[in-house]
Specification:
heterodimer, A: 188 residues, mainly alpha, 0% strand, B: 869 residues, alpha+beta, Phosphorylase Kinase, domain 1, Transferase(Phosphotransferase), domain 1, 6 domains, six-stranded antiparallel sheet, six-stranded mixed sheet, 17 strands, 11% strand, elongated
C-alpha cells in the first residue's frame, strides 16, 4: 500500500500544491519514523543526536523511489521532511495538551501512550505560533528555523536548500532564535 | 513604532558580537536616538543570551523520544504463514508480542518476535530459541504455555498461549490490592517459580510486567526470555550484566534485580526469590521498594540500603507478610528463603492465618556499602573501553613552555601556563604527570632531543611548547613526542590570547588526551561544549576534528582516509569550522600520488581546492589553509606565482608550520632556485625532525640539486631512523641510478613492485630498460597494461617505461598527455635528474621545459635567514 512509488507520487503532488496529498503522506511517513524511532530508542544510546541525520536519511531511502527522484531533490526532501516533522510533533503536542486540559481520564496502557516530555508540548505549541508570526515578518528566517530545528539539517544543508550562503543561514538562525525566544517568553 | 527589520537585524548582530562591557556604547552610536529600536535590540539580546529553550535541542531528537515510546504498529495486518497479526500486546527488552489469529487451528495465539535491531542479531535469536526450549519443558497452570518456535521468511518467533487479562503491573497501578488478594496471587507466582526451579530453570526477570492475571484471578508467568538453565560450567555463568546491558535490558528491569545479579555473579534460584520479594512489596504498597530516579541510585539501594519497612508504607499490611518480604529481600542470599518451596510454605501459612515464628534478630548487612561505588567504577571503565583504548598508567613529562623572539616588553606567559598545565593534567585518570624545571633548548637545529629529556624523567611521552609572535598575534606551538622511539605524536598550534589562557590550557589537555588515547571525562565534555559556545562551534564537530588530527598526524594511506572521514563529518556538522576544512584540504593534497589510493589526482586537487577555499573564506588566518591552497595551486594548477604568494602567507601566519616550508622548498626547486630550496627544505626538516616525509623532502631536494652523495647520506639516515618508511626506498633507488648503482636500484624496485605493482612498475620498467633488459621491461609494461584494465594507471607511468626502453615515439605522446592534464608528478619531467639523459632530444626538451621563477619573486624571510648560515 505504501510502496515507495505511492509516496514519491504523493510528494510530487504535494509539491505541486495538492494539500490533500500531505494528509495522505503524513501517516505513511509517520509510520516509518515510528518504526525507525523504535529501533533507535531500543539501542539505549545516550547520543541520540548523533543519529538524527541518519534517521532522516534512512527514512528518505526507505520511502522514496530513488530511480524516480533525482539526487538533487535530496535537499528538497529535507525541506519536506522538516515540514512533516513539524506537523507530526505539533499533532502530538496538541493531542497531549488537549488531554491534559480536558482532564478526560482515558486509561491508555503505557505501551500505547505517546509521552511527550513534561512541558514540551506547550512549548512546542507556542513555538509553532511564534514561528507563524515570524513567517509573516520574514519568510526565509522562518524557513531556516524549520529546516534546522524540525529537519535537523546542518547550516550547510540549509544553505543548500535555500540557495544562500552558510553565513547568511547562521545569521538568520541566531536572529530567529533570539526573536522566537523573546516571543515565547512574552507569549506564555 | 514599526522598526525596520533589516536595521534591527544588523544592530542585533553587532550587539551580540561586541563585548558586553562596550555594548551600551555600541548601542548609543548605532541606534542614535531611536528608543524603540534600542528597546527592540536590547530585548532580543536579552532573549538571545537567556538561550533559545526548546530551540537549543533538535526536534528530531524530540521526535525520536516521542515516537520511540509510542507503539509500533507496522506489523499489524501482516500475514506470516498461517498467522494474521491482529494487534500489539506489548514490548519486551528485545521482543515485541503480538496477538495473532492462527488460521489452521482457528485460535488466537500470542507471537513473540525479535524487534527492531535484534531481528538480525544472532545472540538475540539464540536467546529466543532458548526461551522456547526452556518453557516447552514446563507444564504448569501458572506458566504461559509455548506451542512452538517458527521461522517464516525473515521472521523468527515463538508461538505462545494467548492470555486474556492484564499484567500485574497494570493491576497494581489501578487497584489497591488487599492482603486477601495479594497472597493467593503470590502463591500462584511462587508455585510457577517452584516448577521452573524444579526443572533447573531460573527465570531471572521476575517483575510485575511479566506476570499476567486473568479475569478469573489466575496467574500466568511470562517471558522466560532471560531464563537460563543452571549453568554447568563457569563460562556459562559469567554471561550476565555485560550481555544484559548489551541488549539494553538492564535498564528496564534493574529495580527488580538481586544484588548478585547486579554484580554479575553466578546466579541460582535465590535470585528469583529476591525478585519475588520486590514484587510482593510492590503488590502490598503499590511501589517498588528501591524506586529512585537514576539507575545509579537504584543500584546503590539494592546493594546497600534496607527499603522502608512495608508496614510503615502500607499500614494494613499483615505483619507476617512483612516478614516474608523481609526474608526475600535479604542482601545475602544465604539468609533468604533457600527455595521457592520454602517461600510457598510460608505463604500458605499466612493464607491459613497461622502466625510465623519470630525471627531471632534483624540482620542488617553493611558489607555491600562500597559495592555500588565499585559497580559504578566498573561501568566507567567499560565506558572508557568503548570510548578509546586507555593505556594503563601513562607518564607524561611536561617541559617548560618557552618564549622566543618576543620583544622584551611582552611578558612571557610560558611558565604560568606550564604550571597550570601540570595541574590540569594531574586530574586525568590513567595519566601520571612529571615536570622539569630546567629549560632544555628543544627547538632549532642544535636542539637537545626531547626524548632524552623525557627518558631522564622516566616518562613515556613528552609535551613541550614555545610561544612566538605570528603575523596575527601570539602563537603557541606544542609538540607531543614519544620517548620510546622519538616519534612525533602530534603538533598543534593555537592562537594565544593572553587574557584567555585557561580555556586554552584545558583545550590542550583535552587534545593531548585524544592523542594519547586517554579516557575522555565529564570535564572534557563540558569543556567541549564551552569551547563550542565560545568559538561558536558545534561540540561534536570539535570532537571529530580532534580525532581527524590524530589520524592526520600519522598520515599514510589508511590513516589519511580515516582523517578525511572525521574532517568531513566535522564540516558536515559545522560548515563554518575553518580548521576542519583546512584539515580536509591538507589530506587531499596528499592524495595526488598513486601511493595514497584510487582517487585520481585531478579529483584530489579539486577536492583539496574546494576545502582550502572554504577554510580561507571563513578564516584567512590559518597557516594550514594557506599552505594547502598553495599546494593545490602548485601541484594542480601549476600556477607558480600564486602558489608562492600563498606559501609566503602561510609562513607569515605561522613560521613554525613545517608543511608550508617543505611545500615552498618544492616550489623553489622546481623553479630553478636551488640554494633557497635547500634552505627551506632543511628548515622544514628541522622544524619536524621526526616526521619522515619532511626529511624525505630534504633528501629529494638534494637529489634535484644534483648533490647525489649528500642525497645518499640523507636517505641512509632516513632509512636508519624510519626503517618502515616506504617513500625513502623509492627515492633511494633514483639516487642509486645517478650514482651508477643500477643493480641496487633495480633490486629496490623489484621489491616494491612485488608488493605494489602500481607504485613500483614505472621505475622497475625504467631500470630494466636502461640496463638493456628489454624483455623484462616489456613484461612489466604488459603487466601494467593489464592492471590498467581494473585500476587507474597514470599515462606517465607507462611513458616512463617507454623512456627507459628509449622508445621516445611511444613515450612522448603519453608524457605529453600527462603534462597537458597537469598530472602533478609530471612536473618532475622538467626537474628530475633521471630525465637529464633525454634532454638532448629536441622533442623531449620541448615537452619538458624548465619552469621559470615567477617574475619579481623574492624568497621568504625564512629562507634568507637560514641560507646565510
Amino acid at each position: 500500500m505504501s510502496s515507495p512509488n505511492d509516496i514519491t507520487d504523493l510528494l510530487v503532488d504535494w509539491n505541486n500544491g495538492d494539500e490533500l496529498a500531505l494528509e495522505k503522506l503524513l501517516p505513511l511517513v509517520e509510520r516509518e519514523l515510528h518504526r525507525l524511532a523504535h529501533s533507535y530508542m531500543r539501542r539505549e544510546n545516550p547520543d541520540h543526536t548523533l543519529q538524527t541525520t541518519a534517521l532522516i536519511n534512512e527514512t528518505y531511502l526507505r520511502l522514496v523511489d530513488q530511480k524516480k527522484v533525482r539526487w538533487q531533490n535530496r535537499a528538497h526532501f529535507f525541506g519536506i521532511a522538516a515540514q512533516i516533522m513539524r506537523r507530526i510533533l505539533l499533532n502530538y503536542a496538541r493531542d497531549q495538551n488537549r488531554q491534559k486540559r480536558g482532564g478526560r481520564a482515558i486509561h491508555v496502557s503505557l505501551s500505547e501512550a505517546v509521552v511527550m516530555p513534561a512541558e514540551k508540548d506547550r512549548e512546542l505549541i507556542s513555538l509553532n505560533d511564534a514561528l507563524n508570526r515570524l513567517e509573516a515578518l520574514d519568510e526565509r528566517k522562518a524557513k531556516v528555523v524549520e529546516l534546522r530545528y524540525f529537519g535537523g539539517l546542518s547550516v550547510e544543508e540549509v544553505a543548500e536548500v535555500l540557495k544562500v550562503s552558510p553565513i547568511t543561514v547562521m545569521r538568520d538562525w541566531q536572529f530567529a532564535k533570539a526573536w522566537l525566544a523573546r516571543e515565547m517568553q512574552n507569549g506564555s | 513604532m514599526a522598526v525596520d527589520l533589516r536595521k534591527l537585524e544588523e544592530i542585533f548582530h553587532g550587539a551580540v558580537t561586541v563585548e558586553p562591557d562596550s555594548r551600551a556604547d555600541y548601542l548609543d552610536s548605532a541606534c542614535h536616538d531611536d528608543d524603540d529600536l534600542r528597546h527592540e535590540v536590547e530585548s532580543l539580546v536579552a532573549a538571545y543570551e537567556s538561550g533559545g529553550g526548546l530551540l537549543e535541542e533538535n526536534a528530531v531528537t524530540l521526535a525520536l523520544e516521542v515516537l520511540g515510546k509510542s507503539s509500533n504498529d507496522s506489523m499489524i495486518g501482516q500475514e506470516i504463514g498461517p498467522y494474521k497479526i491482529l494487534s500489539a500486546l506489548g514490548q519486551g527488552g528485545m521482543g515485541s508480542v503480538y496477538l495473532a489469529q492462527d488460521s489452521r487451528l482457528d485460535r488466537k495465539v500470542a507471537l513473540k518476535f525479535l524487534s527492531g535491531e535484534f531481528v538480525m542479531d544472532n545472540w538475540a535469536k539464540r536467546q529466543l530459541i532458548k526461551e522456547a526450549q526452556a518453557v516447552a519443558r514446563l507444564d504448569h497452570p501458572n506458566i504461559c504455555a509455548v506451542y512452538g518456535f517458527d521461522e517464516i521468511g525473515d521472521h523468527s518467533f515463538i508461538v505462545m498461549q494467548h492470555i486474556e487479562g492484564q499484567t500485574l503491573a497494570d493491576l497494581i497501578r489501578t487497584h489497591a490490592l488487599k492482603p486477601d488478594r495479594i497472597v493467593p496471587l503470590a502463591q500462584q507466582i511462587v508455585s510457577a517459580l517452584a516448577e521452573a526451579h524444579a526443572h533447573g530453570i531460573i527465570h531471572r526477570d521476575i517483575k510485575p510486567k511479566n506476570i499476567m492475571v486473568t479475569p478469573s484471578e489466575q496467574v500466568k508467568v511470562l517471558d522466560f526470555g532471560l531464563a537460563k538453565t543452571v549453568p554447568k560450567t563457569l563460562d556459562d555463568a559469567t554471561e550476565s550484566i555485560s550481555q544484559l546491558s548489551k541488549s539494553g535490558l538492564l535498564v528496564g528491569t534493574i529495580a527488580y534485580m538481586s544484588p548478585e545479579q547486579l554484580r554479575g555473579e553466578k546466579l541460582d534460584y535465590r535470585s528469583d526469590i529476591f525478585s519475588m520479594g520486590t514484587v510482593l512489596y510492590e503488590m502490598a504498597c503499590g511501589r517498588n521498594p528501591y524506586v529512585h530516579k537514576t539507575n545509579a541510585e537504584i543500584i546503590s539501594a539494592i546493594m546497600s540500603r534496607e527499603p522502608e519497612s512495608l508496614r510503615e508504607v502500607s499500614l494494613n499490611c499483615p505483619r507476617d507478610l512483612e516478614r516474608i518480604v523481609d526474608k526475600c529481600l535479604r542482601k545475602d542470599r544465604a539468609e533468604r528463603y533457600q527455595s521457592a518451596v520454602e517461600l510457598l510454605i510460608d505463604l500458605d501459612n499466612v493464607q491459613k492465618g497461622i502466625t510465623l515464628p519470630l525471627p531471632i534478630h534483624k540482620y542488617v548487612n553493611v558489607r555491600y556499602a562500597g559495592l555500588a561505588a565499585m559497580l559504578l567504577l566498573i561501568f566507567a571503565v567499560i565506558m572508557a573501553v568503548y570510548r578509546s583504548w586507555p593505556r594503563s598508567d601513562h607518564t607524561l613529562a611536561i617541559l617548560p613552555i618557552v618564549c622566543e623572539g618576543l620583544d622584551p616588553s611582552t611578558q612571557c606567559m610560558g611558565p604560568a601556563m606550564t604550571q597550570n598545565l601540570v595541574r590540569a593534567f594531574s586530574h586525568r585518570s590513567g595519566l601520571r604527570v612529571t615536570s622539569s624545571r630546567i629549560e632544555p633548548s628543544l627547538w632549532g637545529p642544535q636542539a637537545a632531543s626531547p626524548e632524552k629529556v623525557g627518558r631522564d624523567l622516566n616518562a613515556d611521552t613528552v609535551l613541550y611548547g614555545r610561544i612566538r609572535r605570528g603575523e596575527k598575534g601570539l602563537i603557541l606551538t606544542t609538540r607531543l613526542q614519544s620517548v620510546k622511539d622519538g616519534s612525533r605524536i602530534a603538533e598543534e598550534s593555537y592562537a594565544l590570547n593572553p587574557d584567555q589562557t585557561s580555556m586554552l590550557e584545558q583545550q590542550l589537555s583535552l587534545d593531548t588526551a585524544y592523542y594519547l588515547h586517554l579516557p575522555i571525562n565529564e570535564d572534557d565534555k563540558n569543556l567541549l561544549s564551552a569551547l563550542a559556545v565560545q568559538q561558536n562551534r558545534n561540540a561534536e564537530a570539535m570532537q571529530l576534528y580532534a580525532t581527524g588530527r590524530m589520524y592526520w598526524s600519522k598520515r599514510d594511506g589508511e590513516n589519511i582516509q580515516s582523517a578525511i572521514n572525521n574532517f568531513r563529518q566535522a564540516t558536515e556538522k559545522d560548515p563554518l569550522f575553518a580548521r576542519a576544512w583546512a584539515g580536509l584540504a591538507d589530506c587531499y593534497v596528499f592524495m595526488n600520488s598513486p601511493a595514497y589510493g584510487e582517487l585520481t589526482s585531478k579529483d584530489a586537487m579539486v577536492k583539496a581546492e574546494f576545502a582550502a577555499k572554504q577554510a580561507l573564506a571563513i578564516d584567512d588566518g590559518l597557516a594550514e589553509a594557506h599552505s594547502a591552497y598553495a599546494t593545490v595551486l602548485m601541484k594542480g594548477r601549476w600556477d607558480w606565482e600564486n602558489a608562492e604568494k600563498e606559501f609566503k602567507k602561510a609562513i607569515a601566519v605561522n613560521p613554525d608550520y613545517s608543511p608550508a616550508h617543505w611545500g615552498y622548498s618544492n616550489l623553489l626547486s622546481h623553479t630553478g632556485r636551488m640554494p633557497e630550496a635547500l634552505a627551506e627544505s632543511e628548515l622544514a626538516m628541522n622544524l619536524d625532525p621526526f616526521y619522515p616525509a619532511a626529511t624525505m623532502n630534504h633528501c629529494r631536494t638534494l637529489y634535484y640539486a644534483r648533490q647525489f652523495d649528500q642525497a645518499n647520506t640523507c636517505l641512509d639516515r632516513l632509512a636508519a631512523e624510519h626503517p618502515t618508511y616506504a617513500g625513502g626506498k623509492y627515492m633511494h633507488g633514483m639516487v642509486y641510478i645517478e650514482l651508477g648503482k643500477l643493480q641496487e636500484a633495480t633490486q629496490i624496485y623489484e621489491e616494491i613492485y612485488a608488493r605494489d605493482k602500481l607504485y613500483g612498475g614505472a621505475m622497475l620498467g625504467f631500470c630494466y630498460g636502461i640496463a638493456n633488459r628489454r624483455s623484462e621491461a616489456e613484461r612489466v609494461l604488459a603487466e601494467m597494461r593489464e592492471l590498467a584494465k581494473t585500476r587507474w594507471v597514470p599515462d606517465q607511468e607507462l611513458g616512463i617505461i617507454y623512456l627507459g626502453l628509449n622508445d621516445l615515439d611511444r613515450a612522448l605522446p603519453l608524457l605529453k598527455k600527462s603534462i597537458e592534464e597537469k598530472f602533478p608528478p609530471s612536473q618532475a619531467l622538467s626537474v628530475s635528474p633521471m630525465f637529464d639523459r633525454f634532454r638532448s632530444d629536441r622533442r623531449f626538451a620541448a615537452l619538458a621545459r624548465p619552469f621559470r621563477p615567477p617574475s619579481n619573486s623574492v624568497p621568504s624571510s625564512a629562507s634568507v635567514s637560514t641560507s646565510t648560515k
